[in-house]
Write a structure and sequence with these properties.
Elements (H helix, E strand, L loop, with lengths): L4 E3 L2 H9 L6 E3 L25 H6 L4 E5 L5 H8 L6 E5 L7 H12 L1 E2 L5 E2 L3 H18 L8 E6 L13 H7 L3 E3 L28 E5 L10 H7 L4 E5 L1 H5 L5 H15 L2
Parallel strand pairs: 1-2, 1-3, 3-4, 7-8, 7-9, 9-10
Antiparallel strand pairs: 5-6
Helix pairs in contact: 4-5, 5-9
């Protein structure tokens, strides 16, 4: 049976297309916007946190792609309770190196036409190999080297200010260049503790050397830079592309290059 894929995660939607599986996509979220030219005809089923379950069920997916951080457990439980539930493909890359296993996971699920005489789905294994090679190259290139370590605050929200724990994908991405996020805490496998809120008067804020204001999920702009500087008076503050630093899958290839560019700019 030919798979019918519903992706509830923007990074995974991009990965499905990158692997040459666009024709199998039957549903996506409104945040699944890349690659734009190839997704216009794929039905939207709400957001990552507020999925339109009735519409999704009518689209009859055989597989639903989810992520531990981006989707709610109650959404997954509701899908599993359908009279004819699809296979739930759970992903949880904890850092950029986990993209290698993520590509292998997608290949294992969708790389062959099971039950037909076609065998390997045309081109998917080759695309997976090309992406894996590109990811490994960028991982090899993205190392702390001789860069001085930096204490970093990565902001994802305001009112209240919110940041990332050290065991999130974003924090581990930054650690590839020796940039270590504050506060120094682990948030666990899932839950709100992975993205802690700040009071704004924490003593360690004075130790921060770099404040990074992400373009998502809150779209920080230049007007927020001064407030960030007041929050961390001894730090440089800059806007960063959140997609490059938080999206996994194929986006990690240019994302790791982007990370090295940020590190180089900080030394200027």
């Amino acid at each position: 049976m030919t798979p019918r894929i519903a992706s509830l995660v923007p990074s995974l939607t991009e990965l499905v297309v990158e692997l040459g599986l666009r024709e199998l996509l039957v549903a996506r979220t409104g945040f699944c916007i890349h690659p734009a030219g190839l997704l216009r005809d794929v039905p939207k089923v709400g957001g990552t946190k507020d999925v339109n379950l009735a519409k999704l069920e009518r689209l009859a997916p055989t597989h639903v792609l989810v992520n531990v951080d981006e989707n709610r457990l109650e959404t997954v439980d509701a899908i599993r309770a359908w009279s004819s539930p699809p296979q739930i493909v759970v992903t949880h890359p904890g850092g950029p190196e986990d993209n290698l296993a993520l590509v292998a996971q997608m290949l294992a699920h969708f790389g062959t036409d099971v039950g037909t005489s076609v065998g390997t789905r045309a081109g998917v294994a080759e695309r997976a190999a090309t992406l894996t090679q590109a990811l490994q190259h960028e991982l090899d290139q993205t190392q702390p080297d001789d860069r001085p370590p930096q204490r970093v605050l990565y902001l994802i929200w305001r009112d209240p200010w919110m940041t990332v724990a050290r065991d999130t994908y974003i924090a581990r991405m930054l650690a590839r260049i020796g940039w270590h996020t504050l506060p120094d805490l682990r948030g666990g496998e899932s839950g709100a503790a992975r993205y802690p809120a700040l009071q704004g008067d924490e003593p360690w804020l004075a130790e921060v050397q770099q404040v990074l204001l992400s373009s998502e999920p809150y779209r920080f702009t230049a007007q927020h830079l001064e407030a960030a500087r007041r929050l961390c008076p001894n730090a440089q503050a800059r806007l960063v592309d959140g997609e490059m630093l938080s999206w996994y899958g194929p986006r990690a290839v240019p994302g790791l290059r982007y990370l090295r560019e940020i590190a180089a700019e900080a030394l200027e």
